[in-house]
Design goal:
By secondary structure, the protein is mostly helical. Helices cover 47% and strands 9% of the residues. It has 15 helices and 14 strands. Strands 3-4-5 form a three-stranded antiparallel β-sheet. A three-stranded antiparallel β-sheet has the order 6-9-10. It has a two-stranded antiparallel ribbon with strand order 1-2. Strand 1 and strand 2 form a beta hairpin. It is globular. The chain starts with a helix and ends with a helix.
Length: 426
């Protein structure tokens, strides 16, 4: 099954084995981990993808886990069918509840059913994260770009895109128009719930879209999460194009275009901070009232991931200044230790570095030497398991089974190997 993926894995591992046998081993098992352990094709033709050690499907993680495989879908009908099935299941979930971030395979009542929000038996968790509306559209765009398969653009997908745009428009006016609130009583950290009766801290209208939670599932300090809004700008461009090209839906295209322009204006007007060391940079969060959260988080979308999201190229001066900030001690979640250095997260203990952030640093680096150093660092921090983890410090790691990091590592190594093959004979 998925012969194109296995052929790619074996061919790359063969080349890597001549460079570093341990890298070949880690690459092969990490690259195949999502397909081997998290993907389930269902009787209705859809696909359910768990994150790894949690038996639920996150809209974000499921998209990110399979994204490294999509470009091979044109050569592998089984792979194409799996991805189509995932897109359709994501569409069904978003139509069920666009405010939920994670879902059960069926209406079994698993998950955080005691949270004070509009839960249901198919919903695992209902933390509203703007990026959860973005990832399925990005996966749809990647699939279409790879395969040219027009059949995916059915009525369910059109309804999904309409729901995404309409939800974003409401959340431009969260304080006055949104029905959403969220509170959790059995919290481990304050970031597990939203303050002010579950409505979050107050925001001023900026044109951007409010988000209750970050891609880490931690509550936002300020409601406008800049990297997530950048991602929204990108996917709204896709929705506008799809609405015109496949549905002749002028109202949807126009709404997506206007919303895209609103958000872009908000990012550039309210999301830029003049840092005393780094100069003008993008903030991580703002409230539109002049308050900024200056940090970056390991989870994607992040400021570090701006080129990966497609918002700006890696050599853009604004991105380069922002990147210099997030990869410095001025970012409170950047850790530089004796064995590793990189970005962590308030989601995990202080000092823990995330492989996803190291991989993203490599995917967005402009220098080959930086990428090679990061591969060596990642290879040295698997704790002998041969897999990527959620995070690590010198003594231990979190989450032995974290498929997103494994898939992303596979993508990083493949891109690095392609570059190496193009410049130095292997």
């Amino acid at each position: 099954m998925y012969s194109s993926i296995h052929r790619t894995a074996e061919a790359a591992a063969g080349r890597l084995n001549r460079i570093n046998p341990e890298l070949a081993r880690v690459f092969r098992q990490s690259y195949l981990n999502t397909l081997d352990t998290t993907v389930e094709r269902l009787a209705d033709g859809t696909t359910f993808v768990i994150t790894g050690d949690i038996p639920a499907m996150w809209l974000r993680d499921s998209s990110a886990q399979v994204r490294p495989y999509v470009k091979l879908a044109s050569k592998d009908e089984q792979l194409a069918a799996m991805i189509r099935g995932l897109i359709l299941r994501q569409a069904q979930y978003l139509l069920l509840d666009p405010y939920a971030n994670a879902f059960n395979k069926e209406a079994n009542g698993n998950g955080h059913q005691q949270d004070r929000t509009e839960m249901g038996p198919t919903i695992w968790e209902r933390k509203f994260e703007l990026d959860s509306l973005c990832y399925p559209v990005q996966l749809l765009y990647d699939y279409w770009s790879a395969t040219g398969d027009r059949s995916i653009f059915n009525e369910v997908v059109r309804m999904m895109m309409t729901t995404i745009v309409d939800t974003m428009i409401v959340e431009q006016h969260h304080d006055s128009q949104s029905p959403y609130s969220f509170e959790r009583d059995d919290i481990l950290l304050p970031s597990d719930t939203l303050p002010f009766d579950g409505r979050g801290t107050r925001t001023n209208f900026t044109g951007m879209v409010w988000s209750g939670f970050r891609p880490s599932d931690d509550a936002c300090k300020f409601g406008y999460l800049i990297p997530a809004n950048m991602f929204a700008v990108v996917i709204l461009g896709h929705i506008e194009s799809f609405a015109q090209q496949f549905y002749d839906d002028a109202p949807l295209a126009e709404k997506a275009k206007k919303l895209r322009n609103d958000i872009t204006f908000g990012i550039e007007t309210y999301g830029v901070y003049n840092h005393p060391v780094h100069g003008p940079i993008y903030a991580y969060e703002t409230d539109g009232y002049g308050n900024y959260n200056l940090m970056d988080d390991a989870n994607v979308p992040s400021l570090l991931s701006i080129p990966y999201l497609g918002f700006l190229p890696a050599d853009d001066p604004m991105y380069q200044r922002t990147r210099a900030f997030v990869l410095s001690p001025d970012n409170p979640y950047y850790y530089d230790g004796a064995f590793a250095k990189g970005i962590g997260s308030p989601h995990t203990p202080p000092g823990y570095i995330w492989p996803i952030a190291l991989i993203m640093q490599g995917l967005t680096a402009t220098a080959r030497e930086e990428r090679e150093a990061l591969i060596e660092q990642l290879l040295a921090t698997t704790a002998g398991t041969g897999f990527m983890h959620e995070s690590f410090d010198p003594d231990q790691f979190t989450r032995e089974w974290f498929a997103w990091a494994n898939s992303l590592f596979g993508q990083f190594v493949l891109e690095w190997l392609e570059e190496k093959d193009a410049t130095v004979p292997v």
